Amino acid sequence: MTIPAHAMGEMIDRIDGPDKVRGLARYAFEQPVERPAYLYPVQATIARGRMVGLDCRFASSEPGVLAVLHRYNAVRTRAQDGLGELDILQSDRVAFRNQFVAGVIAETSEIARHAAGLVRVEYQSEPHDVAFSADRDDLWTPSTVLSKFPMEVDKGDVDAGLADAPVRLDRTYTTPRYYHNAMEPHTTVACWADDQFTIYTSSQGVHAARGSIAALFGLDPRQIRVISPNIGGAFGSKAHVNPELILALLAARLVPGRPVKLALTRQQAFFQAGYRPETIQRIAIGAQEDGHIVAMFHACTSPTSQVQEYAEHCTRATPTMYATPNLRTQQRLASLDIPTPTIMRAPGECPGMFALESAMDELAVECGIDPIELRMRNEPETHPGTGLPFSSRNLIACLREGAERFGWDERDPTPRSRNEDGWLVGTGVAASTYHALQVPGSVATIRAEPPGRYTVLIAAADLGTGTWTALTQVAADALGVGVSDVELRIGDTAYPQAVVAGGSAGIASWGTAICEAAGQLRQRLGRGGTIPVEGLEVTAQMPENPYADQYSMHSFGAQFAEVRVNAETGEVRVPRLLGVFAAGRIVNPKTARSQLLGGMTMGMSMALHEDGVLDARFGSVVNQDLATYHISSNADVGAVEVRWLPEDDPYVNPMGTKGIGELGIVGAAAAVANAVYHATGVRIRDLPITLDKLMTW
Amino acid sequence: MRPFRYERADDVAGAVALLARAPQGAFLGGGTNLVDLMRLDVARPDVLVDVRRLTSDQVEELPDGGVRIGAAVPNSDLAANTMIRTRYPMLSAALLAGASGQLRNLATSGGNLLQRTRCVYFQNVTTACNKRQPGSGCSAIEGHHRDLAILGSSPACVATHPSDMAVAMVALDAVVQTHGPNGERSIPLAQLHRLPGQEPEHDTVLEHGELITAIDLPPMPPNVRSRYRKVRDRASYAFALVSVAAVLDISEGMIRDVRIALGGVAHKPWRATVAERSLIGGPASGERFRHAAEEELADAQPLPGNAFKVPLARNTIVRTLLDLAGSSLVPPGTAGPGPANPGATRPEATNPEAAHQETAGPGAADPEGVHPEAANPEAARPAPDPAVMDPEMDPGADPEGPRG
User: Where is the composition biased (Low complexity) (chain B) (predicted)?
Assistant: First the structure.
């Protein structure tokens, strides 16, 4: 089923690279438009209540102000069920602090920003509730299933299994709120003219955005064109339509013919562009003395807003990982007066595997077994949750390869056994996994022109990750031609429909549609392959994967970390990370390495730095910029080595790929936390691992 | 951000006169902090008087062997200046420990001293803050205050001063030269910044319209050793949780002079005079260092979220002094100063570069790399084979084969 690789596997430079480094690649906000107007939002200063007064006179009378947008002049929209976050400027309700309550449209961004400060809003506030805990009596079981995986799993008798086990572990792990903080802010340029919306926006999926907009504004999708050629990072925050896009569209309707430009400030992106919610996870494991797991329970509680449901599916990977006769997972939600969380790189697996892989390290300590050996002893033959065989699974091979490269054999397992000039040194390991999915709904068109030029059209997205290059390589191999014979066009609803870049399913989904179209084209061209003078065009939809229900499909990996912890100050530094992955065929080793390296770095950042601090009195996060919300920066990143194993998986898709956008972050935080335990003897179960938790008091 | 007028003057006196006529106006230096605050509507000047071309951007030697730093000297130039690097390596280290390369290129020496606190409530106009809006209350005391003060705070304000440079300069006994509506004056840097008291809106003792024109550093005595140690969760681009600037002069095991300033702990760079008095004239020992640090911190009033800073400051003071004392240390349990060993005293002392290098612990990396060997956390270990680090350079080990 897998197509032969010629271009695939080549370390080709980014096709979009030269334009980007020369500043020629235009992002959404930079699109040249005639007579732009600028929008600046006004945000609620209460966490819950009603707007009872609005005074726009001062703002309106500022020279250069075109209009003040508010709920009395905004067009009526119809938010779909379950998408209340988009229901903005439609009522007097305030559902969370910093919600958009108005906006100013002006001739310059400076005037808009200044005048926004002159809009007076009066509120009647109500007591708000942002107290997140796993002990609330109003927790509920989420209904939304993000993927085909069940929200909860119950197999065997976990309680009995735990009760009978000679070794028992029952631990609680917590992770704080995380923000995507893509380099490019959320931006939109929207124009309403002749009953048509033309929208440039930074989006992971232009068709999905168009669908949401059409439903919300009651328009025919043909009245809407969404264009998103270049994206400066997204990490999930640009997968769904966000309130800021809707605000820009409402503004565009108020000044027909004028393109309205909106770029969120870094501070605003902390409130209106989604985030990964905090989690409280309980893991109970029962095992034999030799480490064999007999029962496992994993429960996750996370918060969502009052207007929309989002569950951080932390327990999703748990049924994939280790053999056990008794397994139960549980997800609970607390509805609070907060903005709606959203998907962020490896939603679910990322915090979930921090907890599970920390617990596995704790179990290894309890049993006195090497943590790699423990994982080998619990390697399942078939998927522990579904019973299906794996299409391919190379976790053990990754652990072995990593152990050899990292020098794991030389490790003295005793905690706090290495002190180098006042720095405690330790190493840790954790497993990675992510599901390998194809999402139905993508269509590709290929136009062939003599003597051998091929234009491939599909509204896919390149988030800065390398789609442009990798998908061109896929198309070249599918057509049996060279990369230079193929021109790929993406990021525009004028091209055939494509699914959102998410779930690490982009290449698998779009690539399969391209392979299908290429196959049909080659068939119609026949054996000689001569392209007719008038050219030939074929359009094909992604076919269903015949193996989808026969195999369980996942990527795996092993993450290793070395940390140094200052014995007196508790400062943690990470001189060395190693990730070894098995993710099917790697289309472009250059962009793949960057993806995995970026994921690992983001996981280290999660382990040590990132922490959205909620101030319950205000109902919002108060460290709302990159000076106070810390992410790992260059000096924090030591040597990061990225490896992958050859893996030939004939079942996943015609390319044999599994997706690598999220795999790198999964398990990285646990590897760091486990290394910190090894260095210091202190087990940190609440992230981030800041120095106050490790210093000498 | 509000509309404002932009003005330039021909000279310092002109700029001072311009601002004296504009009670809501402000001087514009590098703008790295002020312009951010204007965007956030925290600073609301109606006039900006640009002073970047008015004061010196040079470091000059003074007749007494000290130096005069023009207020317009960019932080990056000051850090790289040969006189600063050789005579005051601690100052260079402190500068490089602060901000990013881009910010240091713009930020001026005078402006660095006058940057505002990074307290999250001060920077958010929708929350109460006595420093931003006198009388509105302090949101930090019962809120997020991990980065804030443990010493010298008041019920009105627990803000910290964010500068690294100022902490080193306070330990160097710097003196600030100003030109104001009432003429010129000299202010010891340790007295420039105030404690918050009931008027946290005033960061310094400067009058409105008073411009810093230069900063003078007195000469460093020969054979003293100095160090700036900055402690933070993140290896770069983060404000100090605690920093220690220390100058130590030991002769035959006895402390002749010691100067210690702390950053990240108070509304001002905190000169640790209690610890200094406790140490001067006595032997250099770990026990005495610890005792002195504890005495200095005895009056600390930490909040629940920053209680860790008290032991962190103690640990960092002690470690910094221990590292500076090096072989001059009196062994534990020894009552007296111990046998003097003048032949072996501080070979590094004649080489200020060595003292500077000490400032970089593992991971305390300086990405700008004045001292690449110190900035490289790999330096302490065998360097990994680069071919193993990078699949692009090691095709044999890459199963997918970069060449197919």
Answer: 331-347, 372-382
